[in-house]
Design goal:
alpha/beta, TIM Barrel, nine-stranded parallel sheet, 24% helix
């Protein structure tokens, strides 16, 4: 039995002070005095919070979920844990289908291996397939040549791996694909889409419950045509991703989105393989991406992705909204867990749930990370 004491424990509805959290592989409860024989961990007056969950992360440091390499997935899981991430969805790009299948196979292997004691990092919960059933008009950094017509039959062999899938609901065959994929247990997200408000609502009616990097790679909100943004923010069935690097979305919008989406808001990184590399041009799967601090662009100026870490997303959101840190932390733990249906065992520090626990200092810098009770950082 382990016991974390002397910390401010972040719960779903506030802070708990003056108590200790008891755990082994799962959370066993809270106490005033550490039980005899327990391993006592001093939080140093910092925060004790549920592990962060990144449902949209492609890679960093040159490692890429789209390489289909188990060793790279292991390295990414290890690095993600440094920033408080205890579980994540390796996210693939729009690629040729045989290449995607190799990626799905590697992620399936990582999903299994990450349950073993030898896996020294964040748990892999499955895959986020960002494409290939998207709209070429809003492809962004995706490869147009690999975009395909929505086809649920292709998903059948991988339904145990693909936990989240981004598609464009306006494409021919998309609504049928959404209905079929939903029956397989896949969570559907609308993104890289040019859908009108009505078509977005049709997608939600068919089973879409998620919006990929809200505001980005979709039509802007318009008072006469609310589009995907209006549909996602206005419908209580939809969780809304947000990249809080202050570059993809202006921080002035953070408060508005928090008030509108509420407990449906999900912070993500959308980190890409060149994240963490030195400033300057870098190759990413045959394309040049220019790194300029937190800004990642193609030579023509198109945003290529993010260099954000999830702990920084929480800090940014709290800073620019004035919300208490426990509320901001929920956006990167409880809400993503709810969005992909794993909140029965992830996302909060509640008795019986997996002991995915992070200790951070007063400035929300990660000091220790525990995955299912094992310290990995």
């Amino acid at each position: 039995m382990k016991c974390i004491a002397n910390g401010k424990i972040i719960l779903r509805d506030g802070l708990l002070e003056g108590r200790a959290i008891l755990f082994d592989e799962v959370i066993r409860g809270f106490g005033d005095v550490p039980p005899q024989g327990a391993e006592i961990i001093d939080a140093g007056g910092g925060y004790v919070l549920p592990g962060l969950i990144d449902v949209h992360c492609h890679g960093f440091m040159g490692w890429d979920a789209s390489h289909g390499d188990l060793d790279e997935l292991r390295r990414m899981s290890r690095r993600a844990a440094l920033f408080g991430v205890t579980s994540w969805l390796p996210t693939t790009m729009t690629l040729d289908w045989p290449v995607l299948e190799r990626c799905f196979a590697a992620i399936r292997a990582a999903q299994i291996d990450s349950l073993s004691p030898e896996w020294n990092g964040a748990q892999v919960l499955g895959c986020h397939a960002e494409g290939p059933f998207i709209n070429p008009k809003k492809k962004g950094a995706q490869a147009e040549s690999c975009i395909q017509r929505p086809d649920a039959e292709k998903l059948c062999p991988w339904a145990d791996v693909i936990r989240l899938m981004t598609l464009a609901p306006e494409m021919d065959g998309a609504l049928e694909c959404i209905r079929a994929a939903r029956k397989m247990g896949i969570t559907l997200s609308m993104g890289h889409t040019d859908a009108t408000y009505d078509r977005a609502l049709a997608g939600i009616g068919a089973g879409v419950t998620h919006a990929t990097h809200t505001f980005n790679a979709m039509p802007p909100l318009n008072h006469r045509e609310p589009g995907v943004v209006g549909a996602a923010l206005g419908d209580n069935r939809v969780f809304c991703e947000l990249i809080c690097d202050t570059f993809h979305v202006h921080p002035a919008l953070f408060t508005m989105v928090a008030k509108t989406a509420g407990d449906r808001l999900v912070l993500i990184t959308d980190s890409i393989p060149v994240a963490g590399l030195p400033d300057g041009p870098h190759d990413q799967m045959g394309a040049t991406v220019v790194v300029d601090g937190m800004k990642l662009r193609f030579p023509d100026g198109t945003i290529a992705g993010s260099a954000l870490t999830l702990d920084a997303a929480v800090r940014n959101f709290a800073k620019h909204t004035g919300l208490p840190i426990w509320r901001a932390a929920n956006l990167a733990s409880l809400n993503p867990a709810r969005s992909i249906g794993v909140d029965d065992r992830k996302g909060t520090l509640e008795t019986g749930k997996d002991a995915d626990i992070v200790i951070a200092d007063g400035d929300f810098n990660v000091r220790q990370t525990y995955v299912r009770g094992r310290r990995v950082v």
